[in-house]
Amino acid sequence: MTLAASTRLDAFEIVAPLGAGGMGEVYRARDTLLKRDVAIKVLPEYWSRDPERLHRFELEAQAAAALNHSNIVSIFHVGQYNGSPYIVTELLHGETLRERLKNGPMRLREAIDVGGDIARGLAAAHGAGITHRDLKPENVFVTKDGRIKILDFGLAKLDPAKSPSSDGPTATFQQQTSPGHVLGTVGYMSPEQVRGEPADARSDIFALGVILYEMLTGKRAFHKTTTAETMAAILNEDPPPVSHIAHGLPPGLEKIVNRCLSKALEQRFQHASDLAFALEALSDSGGTVVAEVPHAQVSRQKRVWLAALAAVLIPAAVFFWISRPPAVPIIESVTQLTDDGVAKWIYSGMQTDGARIYFNEGTVGSLNPAQVSVTGGATGIIPTTVPNVQIAGLAPEGSPLLAFSGAFNYSRRSVWLIPLPTGAARPLTNITAVDATFTPDGRILFSDQGSLYVVGKDGADPRKLLYVGGNLGEPRVSPDGKHILFTHFLSGFAAPEIAEVGSDGANLHPLFSGPSLRWACCPQWTPDGKYVLFVRRGPSGQEIWTMPMQPGFMRVGKPMRLTTGPLSYAGPVVSRDGNQVFAIGVKKRGEVVRFDRATKQFVPFLSGISAFDPTFSADGNWVAYSAYPENTLWRSRADGTERLQLTFAPSDVSYPFISPDGGHVAYTDEKGAVYVISMHGGQPQKLMDSNCFAANWSSDGQTLVCTDYENDHPVAQLLDMRTGTSSKLPGSRDHTGFQWVGEGTLVASDLTLSTLSFFNVKAQTWSVIVAGNQPGSVINWAHSPDYRYVYYTTGGDDPRVVRVHIADRKSETVASLKELRLAPGPDENTQISVAPDGSAVFTRDIGTQEIYALTVKWP
Predict the structure, then answer these.
(1) What are the residue boundaries of the structural domains of the chain, listed by start?
(2) Fewest CB atoms within 10 A around its CB: which of 259, 480, 766, 830?
(3) Does an H or E element contain 192, and which?
């Protein structure tokens, strides 16, 4: 089928043909709703009558739609036009890798970087249970700004255990490949594909090895006169060594290529992320190609000239050697230590005494201290009477634990010492803190209200080191006691930075110079003080980074990524011998459920989609939600039909709320910027730049309220939708989580999450409706769509969901949450929603949070 310009396919208008692409024709088009250019791939009509080709086209759509990674082409929409299916993807500008290789071999650094990007894209696909099976230069795109995109998942194989659920953009297909059926492209197929055997992730790694070979040498690794001869070479022959064609390559790179091209599956890299690590190490080591110089007789005159040249070059070479950056640490292996299926709290720092690892299990409001051996095995709860414990530090001698009790929201909390292995916990009554740790000499370093203090072991006589404002988290002292690192939230919950200061409070400066690493936090020193580890949010989750802290004479420390998927890592701590990093590996997956009061069971809701914070229109016909864990905004009918994606990566949507008239959705991002977008899609309208969270509508739709910060104290911010003006609400200071529950009435909690109260906006008066007796008595709350009830959840050993009738303030327990594993949301807190029929709605956590040991080879 050939489409003419201006032809419309749903909301897309064809602009011009771009040529063939895989199994279909590709066109440039205009998305008339979102006002952006896209690419549309259309399967020809006569192909659509071929069940096999149609199946492959559908599979490509399903496979690509299941992925969200910067190195994989993004898919926006799937539809049909006159019986021909089509896929709408992002529009790429540049050329395929095949077109790039027509100019000959690539420069060493470029080839390594391209190979690393392909490996990272494959790691994301493999993590989602997808094997590409047709990786080749034609299916790799190099954009004009150097980004790499993997294309064409038409031959992909989906792991049924990991394939997308039916709530995705297309229906779920299971590809069944008959034994002995060869799939792939000759010259890039793995030996097992040639033999017609099942392909897995290691088959893609073989194909990437073939591509690496071609990028480095300009020649194909397996290319014979006939197809049969090429296939025989893949099975029985090794290509000429890379170093015989491209002289001067780093020996390590040749080893990487050879390992990828191993005929034996078990001898290749087992995970694409491992291959990415290996290529990253080469890229950061600064290796360059050295040309081969033939030996020749040198005349006396030339020897004199060469000696003079050497007098200049040798000092330059010595200077270069001294000033070059240090080699890169490498993850050699990853070992899973726990497998208990219990949620791990990623916002409490793990600790280790060399024999055991100490961490938190449970969800907010119901956290318990736990432990496991550094070699793995069964986990055990550390007995304590302290409620909602959050581990902060471990004394240098191995006992006690330093811990908090209270809400986790960067507010002041009580500080406790918990003896190990058992013993009565003791409060440090002299101090309250936002965060804390032990110093190497056993004192306590803590932060409170924008300041950093140090106190003795008993918490007495606090001494202020410095004041910087904002919120200070994760203070960590270097092993020699001379330097302090901490996470600094400049205001509210804006993206943090890591700062460094001397132990005397002098010489405060950011840890990173030059371009800032977006959202970096939680520093940890290695035992020798030579490196610091920290966590950074990336496109596919949290990654562990490292930076040398003793770079040596004439050297400059440079942040380096240590991990690259498929897991998201949190809470890293270095083993006492420095050879391992212990971290919580997170694979996020949720399932929306509601409490059925008739059966008293939590049952899948909205087809069990993986989503967070569903919000319902007043008539109950529509729902909007944040996709979990991608945090993009979607809307659909309440029965799951007419799904439409409203925002796209890298948007970070939290706390969506549908307007009372059902026409718009308000939401905030990770920086607290407030947006409103139409339920029909289009461009979001930004109402506030930052530091205003959970914006929600008044019952008349004229005003939004959100939680803002004023001198580090939360306060209600009102946004008038008629005038576009905003103002702080007098009398609302030091409360959080503001929501409209009626005309002129808000509900909010105090900072310790002990009480829940109504606030009369006109009179500026508070009336308590839930008077908790300890922090965590209320965790989260939401009103019913008809504004008749407020539902809230509690923490503790027996968490519950309770509803309060707004008119008469009477309350009743709706359900126990003790057996429901709640998923942590964008701010690592659990949420509650209310369906139109009055059912309490939650996101059940069906992902994993387990502890892993990452063995590190340090330079």
Answers:
(1) 1-91, 99-289, 345-433, 590-848
(2) 480
(3) helix 191-194
Is residue 717's pLDDT more than 50?
Answer: yes
* CATH classification for the domain delimited by 590-848, as one of 3.40.50.300, 2.40.100.20, 2.120.10.30, 3.40.50.720: 2.120.10.30
Q: What is the 8-class DSSP label of residue 822?
A: B
Average confidence (pLDDT) over 369-379: 94
Structure token pair of residue 325: 């950056």
SS3 62: helix
Amino acid at 18: L
Taking only the tens place, the pLDDT of each residue in 396-437 is 999 999 999 876 655 688 999 999 998 999 999 888 898 999
Element (H, E) at 830: none
Annotated catalytic residue 134: yes
The active-site residue out of 134, 274, 353, 669 is 134
Q: At what angle do helices 251-260 and 201-217 cross, to 10 degrees?
A: 140
How open is the CA angle 193-196-199, to the nearest 5 degrees? 45
Share of the chain above pLDDT 90, in %: 46
According to the CATH classification, is domain 1-91 in 3.30.200.20?
Answer: yes
Q: How far apart are alpha carbons 264 and 258 in whole angstroms?
A: 11
Query: Is it true that domain 99-289 has CATH number 3.40.50.300?
Result: no
Query: Do 543 and 534 touch, CB atoms closer than 8 A?
Result: no
Find, among 164, 134, 171, 163, the residue nearest to 150 by Cα.
134
The answer to whether residue 330 scores a pLDDT higher than 70 is yes
Residue with structure tokens 């996709």? 627
Beta strands in 229-273 (DSSP E): none
- Calpha distance 187→221 (Å, rounded): 8
